[in-house]
Amino acid sequence: MSIHRNPDGICAGRTVIITGAGRGLGRAHALAFAAEGANVIVNDVGASLTGEGHDAGPAAEVVSEIEAMGGRAIVNADDVSDWDGAGHMVAEAIDTFGRLDTLVCNAGIVRDRMIVNMSVDEWDAVMKVHLRGMFCPVRHAVDHWRGRAKAGEAVDARIVTTSSGAGLFGSVSQANYSAAKAGIAAFTIVSAVELGRYGVTINGIAPSARSRMTEDAFAEMMKKPDSGFDAMDPANVSPVVVWLGSSSCDVTGKMFEIAGGQLSVASGWQHGEVADKGDRFDPVEVGRVVTDLLSRAPSPAAVYGAG
């Protein structure tokens, strides 16, 4: 389906950075923001699914698509997990377009392995890209927005993070990825409390869509249908991200699950039933108390791939 630019769209005049925007979800987000009138920084190092190598081609192709629809975009190849690289990316957005309004943290890799076979390097690589690669751009962007707010400007900034069903519920053979995505969800709710005073909202998404990360792992689910609605098209996720990145967004600290045409707001950890003895528990009685508490607790969502 061809995309047309609306110069009066809900992101008209806004400048948006999207990390990992050369392919998949990031590419779909970049095109959707441009269609709604935004200036777009298409960040992508062009690495493989597991994080190796560099290729500026995919990001350049996205920029060409945006320019073909009459939009404005630039390629940025900085490594978002590098402190100075992330700072350069934010500075380039401001230098090129005069402002920064929205940051979409989408970059990620996978190093899937069962825990008993996972190496420390496979753990560290996933943490670096997902967590450090989110923190560094957010920290630089927030410095910019905080400075503007302290100077008396009315800031209207947006951050969109990318978690996953694996981060919310867990996924077998993805302990590193699940832990990183859970960390992103926690970071999002904490940042929402801290950043509201500066005019910044931050929300996250847990999308289900066809990408390099999912098309092999969930081949049957991600298969493109012969006809009808393609529920796993990554472009289905982008309208939610565009709204979250626009001035129209009036919520913060939420996690949105989006799959095809299904949208929901996830409910995170809640305090459970309480057993109050009024004194210290004895180890021999803890099992009985726990059994009673679990009998009164709602059943948790299942870990993906379990059973």
| CATH top level label | Alpha Beta
CATH topology: Rossmann fold
The stretches of 5 or more residues where confidence is low (pLDDT under 50) are none
Q: Strand content of the residues, in percent?
A: 5-15%
* Fourth CATH level, the homologous superfamily: NAD(P)-binding Rossmann-like Domain
| Total strand segments | 8
- Based on secondary structure, the structural category is alpha/beta
Number of helices: 9
CATH architecture: 3-Layer(aba) Sandwich
Radius of gyration: 21 Å
Can you tell me the overall shape?
Answer: globular
Helix content: 25-40%
> What is the CA–CA distance across the termini?
39 Å
* Number of structural domains: 1
Give the strand order of the largest sheet, numbering strands 1, 2, ... along the chain: 3-2-1-4-5-6-7-8
Mean pLDDT: 92
Q: What is the chain-wise order of helices and strands?
A: EHEHEHEHEHHEHHEEH
Describe the biggest sheet?
8 strands, mixed
Write up what this structure looks like.
This protein has 307 residues and is an alpha/beta fold. The protein has a single domain, classed as 3-Layer(aba) Sandwich (Rossmann fold), CATH 3.40.50.720. It contains nine helices and eight strands. Strands 3-2-1-4-5-6-7-8 form an eight-stranded mixed sheet, sandwiched between helices. Helix 1 packs across helix 8 and helix 4 packs parallel to helix 6. The radius of gyration is 21 Å and the shape is globular. The model has no long low-confidence stretch (mean pLDDT 92).
